[in-house]
Amino acid sequence: VGPETPRVLRYRLRPLKVNVFDHEVGVVHYKYEADVEPAAGSAKHVGGRWTEVYKRRGSGWLMIAVSGGPDGMR
Hints:
about 0% helix
C-alpha cells in the first residue's frame, strides 16, 4: 500500500472454501470484486481471487501467506 494505491469505493468478498487442519492451520480461498478510483483516472471495476494461509496463535490467527490478484494479471 502506497501513494499510488487506488481508493476503494466499494468491495465484495465471496468465500469459496475454508479448510482448517488439526485446529492449527487455516486456508481460505475467495473471490473479490471492487470499484476503485486510481489517483490519476476514473473509477473502474476489478475482480480477482485470493488464497490466505493462517496459523493459530493462542486464541487468534496469524496470517502467514497470501497469494492472488486481479483476474488476468496472475
